[in-house]
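Troubleshooting log. The previous structure file for this entry was overwritten by mistake, so regenerating from the original sequence record. Sequence copied from the archived sheet and checked twice against the printout by T.R.
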Amino acid sequence: MKQIFLIMVAISGFFGDLAYGQLPNCPCAGSRLKRPLFPGSKDSIEIIQSYDPNAIIGPDGVTPNHWVSVKDRLPYTILYENAASASAPAKRVRVISPIEPKEDAATFQLGSFGFNNQTFAVPPNTVSYYQRLDCRDSLGLYVDVTAGYDQIANEAFWEFQSIDPLTLLPPADPLKGFLMLQDSTQPLNGHGFVNFSIKPKQNAITLDTIGARADIVFDANDTIPTNIHVNTIDAFPPTSHMTALPPSNTNPITLSWTGTDDAGGCGIDYYTIYYSTDQVNFNVLIPKIRRNDTTLTLPPDTSYCFFVLATDRVGNAEVLRPGEIRCTSIGPPLPVTWLYFKGKTVSKDNLLEWATAYEQNSKQFDVERSLNGTVFNRITVVNAAGNSSQTKIYQYTDHDIDRLHSEYMFYRLKQIDLDGRFKYSNIVRLRYNENSMVNSIVYPNPTQGLITILVGDKALVGSEAALYDVNGRLLENIRITANSQSFSLQAYVNGVYYIRLSNKEVLKIVKQ
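Regenerated output below.
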């Protein structure tokens, strides 16, 4: 018996890999197999090996198709397990997850991993990783961990290799491995996991799918595939349209709108209503509403502008489109019903034009001008029609504007009726020697961190804006890359900030 014992020890050391299942066509992973020591021998050894029922878990998404947004970072967890029926710890485990056609390999990031009762963090934004873990206290082993993205094979991989601290080689003892046998008193033993995340390709379209999967190899066993986790992509935001408002209103007022998601999309979740009293700074009036109308009572004798933006069920948010702002004045019936007030620059003159659809007891229009958009001064008076139910068109020319030595000029009308009551029109901003511009708009304002700037001057696209604090200190420059530019103030404390555009517009932002 002593000789047989020595032979078994020698075979266990010399054919260590054989003892971990390098036998062809192994009929049952995790079982105990009897094999002869040598061909024709009546003595036998017991082949012991590890076993893995495994799975991949991805984002649940939105039912019924596990919808995700094309902008989402998709988290995945791959589980592997040395089953209770296994007869030995696992020395080496290799996990592979092929990159799907609609996954962007350039956005792949490793997450934490763990085995038995231990979890190990990976630094943020890590694409490749190697570490020799000192597990001598718990396992009597080192564990080499190598993980990353294989560009040639186009797959993510993780490799866990047990290392004997004495030989610095894979352990020869078949009962030595990093992934332990399951133990009813230690429920985490025998379990392992890896985490990673990745984004969809930005050219993916709605109804494209991502079918994430993984392959796991225990020691020298056959590859065992996981389940396939499928998500469906919603690539585009919905669109909405607010119904036009009359020029004047009385409380309560009703706002109504329509909306539709992109073809095949997951559907609209809610709408956000924004409002402004100065036509520049728009704040959230109703953050989430799932109806298509609402009735409001607002402080009277004020002009209000509104717009609506839709968000779908995976968080794709609509961006404000030009021409989607609706304005009205709330109060008693106005003596004048405005049609428009506009202007343009021709040579060295600013031509102003406005029209009314109805006038009652209207006395005059004071034309006011400002060089900074804040302080206005009257430059002329234009007599009103008094009483009229027909369209009336008025004009005024501000001559020789070069004398003002200002690139920008702002105009508004102060309509005064016979009893002294008055209302202001919208503000027209004109740029010397160029066609009239519209104001840039910022929303939401106040904000909790994220703002969107809708530039009024297309020439601003490609320029840089500057962010200042309330003390005039330059904080950072912002590259304007589109007509609608998003920017985050999350890194800054609550307070007042200013964004100065390259055309000298200054937007005041309140972070709270």
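The radius of gyration is 35 Å. Archived copy saved in two places this time.
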